[in-house]
Every structure is written in structure tokens, then in C-alpha cells.
Amino acid sequence: MSAEGLPIGVQLIAPMGQDRLLLELSLEIEQASVFKQNYNK
Predict the structure, then answer these.
(1) Which residues contact 22 (CB under 8 A, 6 or more apart)?
(2) How far, in whole angstroms, is CA 29 from its chain's centroid?
(3) C-alpha distances in Å from residue 15, one per residue of 5, 11, 20, 26, 29
(4) Nearest-5° angle of CA 34, CA 28, CA 20?
(5) What is the pLDDT of residue 2?
(6) If you write DSSP's letter for every residue of 1-41 in order, what string do you get?
(7) Full-model pTM
(8) Are 10 and 39 in contact (CB under 8 A)?
(9) Are 37 and 30 in contact (CB under 8 A)?
(10) pLDDT at res. 8
(11) Long-range own/partner contacts, residues 25-28 (CB < 8 A, 24 or more apart)
(12) How many C-beta neighbours within 10 Å does residue 7 have?
């Protein structure tokens, strides 16, 4: 997160057919970050 609370960026990759893994990891990152809390204000 930047000083302004904005996401800086992330790129996630996984082997072909592992879409579920990417979605699960994305959810964990979102839940652990303050971005979700700031975005819903």
C-alpha cells in the first residue's frame, strides 16, 4: 500500500488449471490488507 492507502500492485501466476489457487490466494491477500476496508468507505 502506498502512503495514501492505495494498492501498489500485484501479479499472481499459477500453473495452467490452477485458477482456484489464484482465487484463494487473492482472497487471502484482500482479507489481510487495509485496501478492502478503505475501499468500502
Answers:
(1) 12, 13, 14
(2) 4
(3) 31, 14, 11, 15, 19
(4) 145
(5) 80
(6) --TTS----------TT-HHHHHHHHHHHHHHSSHHHHHT-
(7) 0.58
(8) no
(9) no
(10) 79
(11) none
(12) 14
Cell numbers that stand for 25 in this block = 490466494
30-37 long-range Cβ contacts below 8 angstroms, 24+ apart: 33/1, 33/7, 34/1, 34/5, 35/1, 35/5, 35/6, 35/7
Mean pLDDT by runs of 10 across the 41 residues of the chain is 78 93 90 66 56
Contacts for 25-33 with beta carbons within 8 Å, 24 or more apart? 33/1, 33/7
Per-residue cell: 1: 500500500
